[in-house]
Design goal:
This protein is largely without helices or strands and 345 residues long. The chain is 8% helix and 12% strand. The longest helix has 12 residues.
Length: 345
């Protein structure tokens, strides 16, 4: 494996901050967020393996947390004995179809991360389900979830989904992860009024829109898309973390109502001036590396953020100044970390 430069490593760090951290292992998650996963290659599981017969796997009828990770399971069968199971992990197997789960009505969490599943189906009896992870499969659409009205967390990272649809019944959903898919439009989210975290990184989205109903949203990640304008966020008054790195944004704007922001990530865009954020007094982290900032007076926009601890400004014209770190420290005395390096006192 080729070694990464310091800049590439730091860029990966920026990207990673804005993605959900509950689905998948660290390595595959890091690669997927940065677009490094080859969709034609297996991830953590080798798809060349031969599936095993479920009869060879011992199941405990008393077990509530069932872990069948990387067991080379090819077909779901014989799980009827797991009547007491609350969580079932089938990640990193060779499963192609969701089936034979009807009797597991007590399940709260179901994990199919890294399999070969092509369709969301046969889940209608799992009405107690609160968390479903279908990341790293080959799903082309969101469907078959109508009965899962208690679902709180839904992970669909790294599939082949082209549109956001069929989620209107999931009114209790708090986290939705749709990163690394083929989505072009933000749509059909109006009924998800309980949603707190929305992850849409690494898609093909061109516009921030149709977010007005998400009053409870605190985290929005839309990194590595095709956004050119910050807009459509006026109703997200509870937003605390906004991740917009690796887009085509040229002007910082449209954040007038987002006064609760503690993290703002606009790294790797086309911004020439830090502006229109002096009202963001609760900012703790500001990521503006890999832009075109060249005027030290721009830092005045951050002076009202008295709790600001982390600032990323590397790979801007400002960094060419021999007094780069010193000037940031003088302008922003609360800061404890500049780029990837902590300040020594």
């Amino acid at each position: 494996m080729a070694s990464l430069s310091v800049g590439e490593l730091q860029e990966m760090e920026v990207d990673r901050r804005g993605e959900s951290e509950e689905s998948g292992d660290d390595e595959t998650r890091r690669k997927s967020i940065n677009g490094d996963v080859d969709p034609n290659q297996p991830t953590a599981t080798s798809k060349e393996e031969s599936p095993v017969d479920m009869d060879t796997i011992t199941l405990d009828p008393e077990e509530e947390d069932v872990d069948l990770v990387h067991c080379r399971i090819g077909k779901i069968e014989g799980l009827e004995v797991l009547q007491k199971a609350k969580t079932l992990s089938l990640r990193q197997n060779l499963i192609k179809k969701i089936e034979n789960l009807d009797s597991l009505s007590a399940l709260r969490e179901l994990d199919f991360y890294d399999n070969q599943i092509r369709k969301l189906e046969n889940l209608h009896n799992l009405t107690e389900l609160e968390q479903l992870d279908m990341s790293f499969n080959v799903l082309r659409k969101v469907e078959g979830l109508e009965q899962l009205t208690r679902l709180k967390k839904l992970f669909l990272l790294h599939n082949k989904i082209s549109s956001i649809a069929n989620l209107e019944h999931l009114t209790g959903l708090e986290m939705l992860e749709l990163g690394s898919n083929r989505i072009r439009v933000i749509e059909n989210l109006d009924s998800l009024t309980s949603l707190q975290s929305l992850f849409l990184g690494t898609n093909k989205i061109t516009r921030l829109q149709n977010l007005d109903a998400l009053h409870n949203l605190t985290v929005l990640s839309i990194q590595s898309n095709r956004i050119t304008k910050i807009e459509g966020l006026q109703n997200l008054i509870n937003l605390k973390e906004l991740y917009l790195s690796h887009n085509g944004v040229e002007i910082i704007e449209g954040l007038e109502n987002n006064k609760k922001l503690t993290t703002l990530d606009i790294a790797a865009n086309r911004v020439k001036k830090i502006e229109n954020i002096s009202h963001l007094t609760e900012l703790q982290e500001f990521w503006m590396n890999d832009n075109q900032i060249d005027n030290w007076s721009d830092l005045d926009e951050l002076k009202n953020a008295t709790s600001l601890e982390t600032v990323y400004l590397e790979r801007n014209p400002l960094q060419k100044d021999p007094q780069y770190r010193r000037k940031i420290m003088l302008a922003l005395p609360s800061v404890r970390q500049i780029d990837a390096t902590f300040i020594r006192f």
